[in-house]
Amino acid sequence: MKVIDIKNLHKTYYESEHEVHAVQGINLTFEEGEFAAIAGPSGCGKTTLLNMLGGLDDPSSGEINIGGTDVSSLKSSQRINFRLNNIGFVFQAYNLIPVLTAKENVEFIMHLQGKSKIERDARTKELLEAVGLGDRMNSRPSKLSGGQQQRVAVARALASKPKFVLADEPTANLDSKATENLLDIMEKLNREEKITFIFATHDARVMKKARRVVYLEDGKVLRDEVK
């Protein structure tokens, strides 16, 4: 079932008075439960595209329909609410809150959703155990390795039970073993919970694992390969 429909999407911005066409007329669809990568060199538009999918950035023109909602037309407050209940994010820089423990970082979004303490505790324990960190629930980010911090970030992204997870270069700061572990965890969650994962990456290890790779060049789709 088609769950993401991107039509004639453009993003233009200005940098030092120069016009930059970051995304140029992209048309794409994604099916429910895909494990897909948007790939290409730095500056090809993949992060810009991902940010527009997640409602973090406004398109200059075009349409993004996610699960029947035209995200590109939502007002700021509506977009925040849509993200909160539908989309999980995993960032290259982890973006964990340093003063909070792993458990508290994962719980944070559920606080925003108004979940009860019983629900928060159960979901957090389930997720941290799923990513192999059940014994590090009370550790702050500074006491965790890069790979462990990224696994906490994945658990946090899944805490709200999102339909989609958008991951921007999630393996960029990880060694080969940590990358393999992280991708195995995300693939397992993708298969078991039918969550749609979309990565922005230039990491060959991610592209190898993905079941579909969309290659961008100069803000346009160069080719779209399904394995």
Kindly describe this structure:
The chain has 227 residues and is α/β, with parallel strands linked by helices. The protein has a single domain (2-98, 145-226), classed as 3-Layer(aba) Sandwich (Rossmann fold). The protein has helices spanning 46-53, 76-86, 102-113, 117-130, 146-158, 176-193, 204-209, and strands at 2-15, 18-31, 35-39, 61-66, 69-70, 87-90, 164-168, 196-201, 212-217, 220-226. The strands form two sheets. It has a six-stranded mixed sheet. The protein has a four-stranded antiparallel sheet with strand order 2-1-4-5, with helices on one face. It is globular and about 45 Å long. The two termini are 18 Å apart.
**What is the name of the CATH class?**
Alpha Beta
* SSE run: EEEHEEHEHHHEHEHEE
- At the third CATH level, what is the topology name? Rossmann fold
Helix content: 25-40%
